[in-house]
Every structure is written in C-alpha cells, then in structure tokens.
Structure prediction request, 114 residues.
Amino acid sequence: MTREDDLGHSDIEAALATRRELGARYDAELVDGFAERIERAVERRVADQVALQRGRSAAVAGGGARQLALGIISLVAFIPISIALGVNDQFLALLVTLAGIVAVNVAHAWQSRQ
Prediction:
C-alpha cells in the first residue's frame, strides 16, 4: 500500500483541517478527493481478495488431477509388489507396503485440500 493510498485517522484529520482553513465552499472537492481515495483502497483490497481466491481455486483444481495420477501410479506400483510378497508368503510385509501406499495417498489428498 502506498502512502498516497494509505487511509487512516490522520487523513480524516487533515481533511477536516483543510476544510476549516479553506472554508465551506471547498467541501465538495474535499469530499470527492477523499471518496476517490477510499474507492481506490476498496478496489485494491477487492482485487487482492479475488487474486487470492483464484490462486486457491487453481490449487484445488490441480490437486484433483495430481491425486488421480498418484492413485493410478500407486496401484500400478502395488501390483508387482503384492505379487512378489504374496508368492513368498510375506503377508506382514504386504500389509506394511499397502499401509505405506495408502498413507502417501491420504497425506497428498489432505495436503491438496488445504
């Protein structure tokens, strides 16, 4: 925020002091100038909020495609691992591997939603 657009208590005091100094005949110009500064500040804040919301929406939209890709890759990776561990009677290792893959997918889904 630039100093020119920064609105605060001192700006109101300055506008009132200017009015006292110049008299009532300049009221319209003082009010118009102050209103323009308020409008610029509001427009800037709205633009900032819109940009932030668009960034969040884009991140969530991209998260769905990444989640799908991760799910497919996880499934493709788990198939040969499960075959190798199943043939060798490594049931505990199979469960640990499955839990790890599920944990990675859940962590990614949870992180993508925030």
